DNA sequence: GTCTATAGTCTGATAGAC
DNA sequence: GTCTATCAGACTATAGAC
């Protein structure tokens, strides 16, 4: 019997079945993410997901208890990635610049096709998400971080005085999900870089001279 | 036989039945408008509308061939009212001011609860609307008028130079439907006037100092 | 395969316009 | 009094979660 290499853990290796199971779960999440971005929540049928992954519909329910739970898992993964992107920004940069950078990051993610049409597409999904502890925790953590940036930007004197902090935060979220991006992309008259630049500028500096 | 007064038309007066029919049609449109604004397209069942109006479901189909046709009629009425509001603005005002005024008008309409969650809520509805000649004509007429205002604002030198006209128009539509309004309204921290003022200002002048 | 939801249809009964 | 529009609601068909 050959000795295990140092790379292999002492505890019994995950069984092949187990590894397959986890790979399939990632594949399901990826497919769902793609379909959510493409069609939105309600139009996306569980059959679509099964077909995309290439597994039986019933198998989906071995991984996720319901369509809502599956969508929630996708959204939680997205919030985590967003939070990581925010953490990766240089801490010494002015708060306003970091907010700009986050908006730009999000818009580029969307242009690359990776971001599901926001919960706003479906009241059912929104309610399910707000009932999901893990999702709400992630969302609150992200909102805390963004809220800190807003307050910091204000004390830096970077914001116009009469906007409520609450307003600035909602404004940021709404610009991150702005449908203008999809229309411009579909219109095809502007490059991705132009779309991102104009949207970021409009969000922070307005469109008037 | 008494002579008809001058106020009465020669042709036979509309029968009572006919008048009832038309009143009911308005009631159906009003109820649908309200329900669309409250729940969105798919969650709104025809039974809901019938119940809201207080008529039998079958009677709905005496007025509108389908759920899609009914929703389209509501949206067309909304576009007409919007165009009338635009026509009512003083023609001598600068184009940029008229755009601001239109955005303010729309946001106030939404705060008053009268505007259906945009077509974006449902791909089905969006497709049905785009296949509806009357709707598309109204939408194009409105877009023409707004596009004219944008071009005029640009030649007035009111817009920042590097925004595409196309971008400015989409930006305007997106701000008119901005979910920020609903969040702020639900939050309750700001008055309606504050919400409108901050949103209009953010849309045109940005949030940075 | 089962079950639920809902668009859309149909029918017999009935109120009320004519 | 006659007749027609409307009513209540059963029913069909379909889609989609599970």
Automatic annotation (TrEMBL), chains A, B:
Keywords: DNA-binding, Transcription, Transcription regulation. The keyword Kinase does not apply. This is TetR/AcrR family transcriptional regulator. GO terms for molecular function: DNA-binding transcription factor activity; transcription cis-regulatory region binding. Residues 22-82 form the HTH tetR-type domain. It comes from Zeimonas arvi. Residues 45-64 bind DNA. SUPFAM superfamilies: Homeodomain-like. The keyword Ribosomal protein does not apply. It holds the Pfam family TetR_N.
């Amino acid at each position: 019997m050959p000795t295990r290499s140092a790379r292999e853990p002492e505890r019994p290796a995950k069984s092949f079945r187990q590894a397959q199971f986890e790979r399939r779960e990632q594949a399901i999440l990826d497919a769902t993410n793609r379909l959510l971005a493409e069609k939105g929540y309600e139009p996306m049928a569980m059959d679509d997901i099964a077909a995309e992954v290439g597994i039986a519909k019933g198998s989906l329910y071995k991984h996720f208890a319901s369509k809502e739970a599956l969508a929630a898992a996708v959204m939680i993964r997205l919030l985590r990635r967003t939070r990581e992107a925010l953490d990766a920004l240089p801490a010494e940069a002015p708060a306003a610049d970091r907010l700009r950078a986050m908006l730009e990051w999000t818009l580029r993610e969307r242009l690359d096709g990776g971001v599901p049409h926001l919960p706003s597409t479906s009241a059912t999904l929104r309610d399910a998400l707000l009932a999901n502890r893990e999702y709400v925790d992630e969302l609150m953590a992200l909102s805390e971080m963004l809220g800190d940036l807003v307050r910091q930007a204000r004390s830096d004197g970077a914001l116009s005085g009469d906007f409520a902090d609450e307003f600035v935060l909602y404004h940021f979220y709404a610009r991150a999900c702005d449908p203008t991006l999809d229309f411009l992309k579909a219109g095809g008259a502007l490059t991705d870089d132009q779309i991102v630049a104009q949207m970021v500028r409009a969000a922070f500096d307005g469109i008037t001279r």
